[in-house]
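User: Design a sequence. Structure:
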């Protein structure tokens, strides 16, 4: 099934409803994905956005399928969530509400871990 995750998509919502009604406990995973741009800032932006969407939507697991030798920008997006200080500091363990008034030009994701709060804008 092909899903476009940039906005709420009816197919994805339908899938979540089917799981809730007949397959409780089943988790959603994307076993192969790649938005491209591994060696360009556009790849970092796409990857950061999809990671935020995966978190917001409760995706259990996702596996990046590297398609080029140079994926440095994509890995940089992972670092923004998982190792932003180079010493293992991550984005947070619990997602919290965050909104933007301009979804066409920006994305925003927020999280918390105990008393600490993080906000990722791009």
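Assistant: Done.
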């Amino acid at each position: 099934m092909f899903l476009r995750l940039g906005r709420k998509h009816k197919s994805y919502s339908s899938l979540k409803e089917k799981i809730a009604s007949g397959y409780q406990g089943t988790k959603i995973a994307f076993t192969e994905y790649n938005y491209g741009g591994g060696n360009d800032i556009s790849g970092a932006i796409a990857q950061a956005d999809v990671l935020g969407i995966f978190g917001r939507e409760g995706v259990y697991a996702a596996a990046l399928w590297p398609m080029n030798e140079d994926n440095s920008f994509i890995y940089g997006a992972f670092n923004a969530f998982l190792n932003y200080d180079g010493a293992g500091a991550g984005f947070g363990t619990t997602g919290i509400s965050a909104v933007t008034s301009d979804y066409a030009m920006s994305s925003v994701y927020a999280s918390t871990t105990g008393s600490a709060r993080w906000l990722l804008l791009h």
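The longest helix spans residues 41-56. The chain has a mean pLDDT of 84.
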